[in-house]
Design a protein that fits this description.
The chain is of the alpha/beta class. It has one domain: Rossmann fold (3-Layer(aba) Sandwich), CATH 3.40.50.300. 56% of the residues lie in helices and 13% in strands. Strands 2-3-1-4-5 form a five-stranded parallel β-sheet, sandwiched between helices. α1 packs across α8. The radius of gyration is 16 Å and the shape is globular. The chain binds thymidine-5'-diphosphate.
């Protein structure tokens, strides 16, 4: 089963992925965790190109293609083999991030992004996408306090951009409610974890 996590910087995705992975492993479930952009040697190279604060001249199309290129490598090298081996794959960001950031955020045409995404992913769609929804200002503040060193080019974009990204996520979730689980990231870590764990165990046909 393939599960993706989406959310703004500072929404607590990384913490929740770790908690879910631990909870599933405790129940004897074989879990693989990975992240975008990156997760492979090629993808990590692309990641440093994309997030470098000095790369201000990057064109939105170049940015889009680089995210899709990192994704294609991750799908072929990590995600598809893990799924074929029967593992549950938890991925920190996936194709919906490109729709949210480059599409809704940067104004790249959604149809073109969907077509590129289908090519990059071999049309692999997650069974479940967990969106941790957080107020834009609260999220950026959390991330700034948490890890100043990780402040990257995407987060440096103007606040309006982040509002468009959030609205995009909420629109996508509303269009496809069966795939998306939207959770308020202002809740406690435990409450969010419980909601995620309950839904995932139910999908896996296990009792909590
Ligand atoms: P990262 O440090 O991994 O942030 P986070 O902890 O929020 O995942 O940085 C990834 C950044 O790249 C983040 O700002 C979102 C952005 N991004 C896109 O713009 N498009 C994409 O397709 C992906 C995967 C990420």
């Amino acid at each position: 089963m393939f599960i993706t996590f989406e959310g703004a910087e500072g929404s607590g995705k990384t913490t929740q992925i770790q908690l879910l992975a631990d909870a599933l492993r405790l129940r004897g479930i074989d879990v693989a965790t990975t992240r975008e952009p990156g997760g492979t040697r090629i993808g990590d190279g692309i990641r440093s190109l994309l997030l470098d604060l000095t790369h201000t001249e990057i064109s939105p199309r170049t940015e889009t293609l680089l995210f899709q290129a990192a994704r294609a490598q991750l799908v072929d090298e990590v995600i598809l083999p893990a799924l074929a081996a029967g593992r549950v794959v938890l991925c920190d960001r996936y194709a919906d991030s490109t729709l949210a950031y480059q599409g809704y955020g940067r104004g790249q045409p959604l149809d073109a992004l969907r077509a590129l995404g289908a090519y990059a992913t071999r049309q692999l769609t997650p069974t479940l996408t967990i969106y941790l929804d957080i107020d834009v200002v609260a999220g950026l503040t959390r991330k700034r306090i948490g890890a100043a060193a990780e402040w990257n080019r995407m987060e440096n974009l103007e606040i309006e951009f982040h509002h468009r990204v959030r609205a995009g996520y909420l629109a996508m979730a509303a269009q496809e409610p069966a795939r998306w689980l939207v959770l308020d990231a202002a809740q406690s870590i435990d409450a969010i974890h419980l909601a995620i764990r309950t839904q995932v165990l139910e999908l896996l046909g296990k009792s909590s």
